[in-house]
Amino acid sequence: MIAKISNNRFIKSFKPEKWSRGLFWSWNLIFIAFMLLGFAPQILPMLVTGVRTGDIPSSFLLYALILTAIPVIAVILGLTLLRSQPGKLFALGFGAEAPLMLLIAFRFFLVRQMTPAIAVLLITSALGLAAFLWHLLDQRIDQRGPLMTHARLISMTFLLIVGLYAAVWVSFYVVPMVAQSGHLLSSFFQQIGRMLRELNWSDLAEQWRWIPF
Questions:
Q1: Contact in structure between 36 and 68 (CB atoms under 8 Å)
Q2: pLDDT given at position 40
């Protein structure tokens, strides 16, 4: 009897609604802390200075501002339009917000020169994500007529193609990353320990500003 009661409690703890809300809000707390307490105060001033001096293209500042604003907008949508819809809340976080942040971060950190192939990939991804976000937020999306329905179908197909392409591309790195995970974690904690030993305690306030980032 006790085992049965424990089993029922275990099953009830896996309600999709609870997990949808928990995953969305826990990840967004991380995103907000990273972007507003780390990335924005540390990186944005340097980007503004670089744009003024002409060392950095103004488009990079725009990407950084969009990257900072994404989790804020997601939280606002979660508190307003999607507050009572945990399924859509989960889809917003992991189907729209996280891929969009990865897309902007990819352009911001990795791509220095825009090639036609990269441009097509980014534009296709953006169209697909826009269609998916429209699908989540528009309560009357099925009443928009055949033209808009076909446009949504085409854009969502773009998103599927990009998702499959990204999955194939990432799969080449999964095995070596898993094989090196132990070494990477060990190296990470060694660097943290080295940083703590070399910390200039007289500048503690300045040093701690980097922790969220």
A1: yes
A2: 82
pLDDT at 211: 60
CA angle, 162 as apex, 157 and 163 as ends, to 5°? 95
Instruction: Categorise residue 138: left if φ over 0, alpha if ψ from -120 to 50, beta otherwise.
Output: beta
C-alpha span between 98 and 105 (Å, rounded): 10
Q: Which two tokens stand for residue 8?
A: 């029922």
Rounded alpha-carbon distances, angstroms, from residue 101 to 10, 46, 176: 34, 20, 24
Determine the residue type at 36. L
pLDDT in tens, 87-113: 888 999 888 888 888 888 887 777 767
Do the Cβ atoms of 141 and 135 come closer than 8 Å?
A: yes
Distance (Å, rounded) from C-alpha 49 to C-alpha 45?
A: 6
Q: How far is CA 202 from the centre of its chain?
A: 35
The CA distance from 64 to 56, in Å, is: 12
Tokens 């942040």 appear where? 101
State the Cα–Cα distance between residues 119 and 114, nearest whole angstrom: 6
